[in-house]
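Reminder: ligand-aware prediction takes two inputs, not one.
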Amino acid sequence: MDTHPNLRINPHRFRQDFLALAAIGATPAGGVDRPTFSPAHLQARAWFARQVKEAGLELRVDGAGNHSAFLGCAGPGAPVLLLGSHLDSVPNGGRFDGALGVLAALEALRVVKEAGLSLKCSLEAIDFTDEEGTLFGLLGSRLLVGALEPHHLAHPRGGRAAFETGLQRAGLSEAGLLSARRDPAGLAGYLELHIEQSSRLQQAGASIGVVTVIVGIGSYRLTFIGQADHAGTTPLAERRDAGLGAAAFTLAARQLVLDSFPGCVVNVGSQRFHPGSFNIVPGRVELDLEFRAADLDTLHGLEAALLELAAAESARWELGLEALRLGLHPPAEMSPLARQAVFQAAAGLELAAVPLSSGAGHDAQSLAPLCPAGMFFIPSTGGSHSPRELAFWDDCLNGANLLLQAALRLAS
Ligand SMILES: [Zn+2]
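Here is what comes back for the chain with zinc ion:
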C-alpha cells in the first residue's frame, strides 16, 4: 500500500487560514470569543463554508449543524474517515483550541484533492457543533453517533432558554437535531489534532502526545435550599443559610478528592445565590459541579462520594438538597489502530511522540464507541480556555502534517 509519505500541507495557506479565522470574534487580549451560535461563531462557520466551496470540496451541514467538507476520494459506498474538531470557543477563549484541528483537517483534504489521490475511504473535515458546552457539550458529535435521545435534551447545561434561542439563531430545530445520527458502517474512523492545554509535553521534551484515554466527566446542578431571612435581625444560630452549605460543600469536595481520589479533579465553576442581596440570608444556592476520572469505576465512585458529601453538608447546615445530573460522559479509550497510525506517521515525520491521557473532554470521546477514534496533541503554553493560550507555529505545522500523514495511513 502506498501511504504517500512525502505529501505535506501547504504552510502558507494554512497560516492564512489560521489568521483569518483568529480574526473572527477576536478579543483585545489576543484570544477569541465564539461561544456556540453567537454572532462570531456563526460568522466563523460561514467563513469555513466559504473556504470549503472555494477549495472545490463539497459542503455538508447536518441536522445538528455540524459543518463538513467532504472529499469523495474512494469508490461509491466507501466509508468515510472523519478529521475534525470545533470552531466554537469558551467565552473569552484562545485562538488554537478547536480551530487548529478544523483548519488542519480542511487543509489535509485540499492537499489530498490537489494530489488526486485515490484512497480506500473518503475524507471529511468536520466542525462539530458546541464542543465546549455553551449549550450542551459535545452536542454535535454525540448527535452524530446517536448517543442523545430527546429526554437528554431536556436539561441542557446552559439552560433551556439559551438552548432554544441558540438553535433558532442557527436555523436548527430540536427535532432536526436527531437526524444527524449516522450509520456506524459508514464511518471508517475519526482523527483529531488539538493543543495539549497542559505542560506535560513540554516537560517531556516531546513534539506530539498520542492520546491513550480521554477522562470521563460528570456534571451536576446541586441546589442547597434553606430559608431567606432578614440578614440584620435573624440571629446567626437561627439561620438556614444555603450559602454556608454550598461553601462547606465546595471546600469539602476538594479535600475529598485530594484524600481519596488520586488523579481525579473536581470543580465548582459557578454558584447562584437567591434571592441574592446584601441584606437577605441566602435562601437557595445553585451550584454547578463537575468532576473527572480516567476510569469508569472511579468516576462512579467519585460521583457517589460527592453526592453523599452534599447530603451530609446539607444536613449539617439544616438545608434541603436537590441534585440534578446534567451529564456523565464515560472515559473513552482511543483506538489502538488510530494510535498506531499516529505513532507510525510521527516516526515518518521524525517527530518525538509520547503516549498521554487527556484530562479535557473532546469530540473524539463521542466517536470512540462507534469507530476507530484517535487524537493527538501538540505542545501549548500559557494555559487554555484563556486568551493566553499559545502554540508555536512550527508545532502547529507539525501537527497538521501529522494529521495528513496519519489520515493517509488509515485511509490507504
Ligand atoms: Zn477543544
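The mean pLDDT is 96. The pocket of zinc ion is lined by residues 86, 97-98, 131, 194 (CB under 6 Å). We will return to this case in the review session.
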